[in-house]
Amino acid sequence: MAQETEAEMFGRGVCKLLQEYAQKLEQRMSEMRAAKQAAQMRKINFVGSTEWQSLQQRIGSLSQALLTATREASQLAEQGDVRDLTRFELRLRRAEVEGLIHASEFLLNSND
Predict the structure, then answer these.
(1) Could you tell me if 62 and 21 are in contact, meaning their C-beta atoms sit under 8 angstroms apart?
(2) Which domains does the chain have, with CATH numbers?
(3) Burial of 22 (C-beta count, 10 Å sphere; 0-12/13-18/19+)
(4) How confident is residue 112, by pLDDT bands cut at 50, 70 and 90?
(5) How far, in Å, CA of 104 to CA of 83, rounded?
(6) Is the dihedral of CA 29, 31, 34, 37 positive or negative?
(7) How far apart are CA 66 and CA 102, in angstroms?
(8) Cα separation values, 3 from 7, 10, 78, 79, 83, Å
(9) DSSP for residue 4
(10) Are 30 and 36 in contact (CB under 8 A)?
(11) Rounded Cα–Cα distance for residues 73 and 46 (Å)
(12) Quick check: 68 pLDDT over 60?
């Protein structure tokens, strides 16, 4: 078996981190949806509340960090000395995270 390159180890680590933090972003988005729904049931304005601002900040920070990580994953997939399977997974994880980031932006910008 060939020696694993540093880029390969890094690539696998990036894949794991993207997966882990994508799950965290999904969790924060679920919290936001649940809080919005609870506010609607109580007929109060959720947007602008302290809870909304807190969730907005956490989702925004996580999204920015993930965006940076997806750029790294993209560069590694295109230029890194990684196995084809790792390259494929980097691209898939990047696409998954980018979709979540767009969904989080939509969630943060919807006022209902």
Answers:
(1) yes
(2) 10-109 (1.10.132)
(3) buried
(4) low
(5) 31
(6) negative
(7) 12
(8) 11, 14, 21, 19, 12
(9) P
(10) no
(11) 36
(12) yes
Cβ(52)–Cβ(35) under 8 Å? yes
CA dist 106 and 59 (Å) reads 12
Please report the DSSP string for 92-109 in residue order.
Answer: HHHHHHHHHHHHHHHHHH
At what angle are helices 6-41 and 84-109 packed, to 10 degrees?
20
CB atoms within 10 A of CB 21: 17
Tokens of 61: 């920070």
Q: Which token pair is 60?
A: 């925004």
Element (H, E) at 89: helix 84-109
46 φ/ψ angles, rounded to the nearest 5 degrees: -80, -40
- Each residue's pLDDT tens digit, 16-62: 999 999 999 999 999 989 988 888 888 877 777 888 889 889 999 99
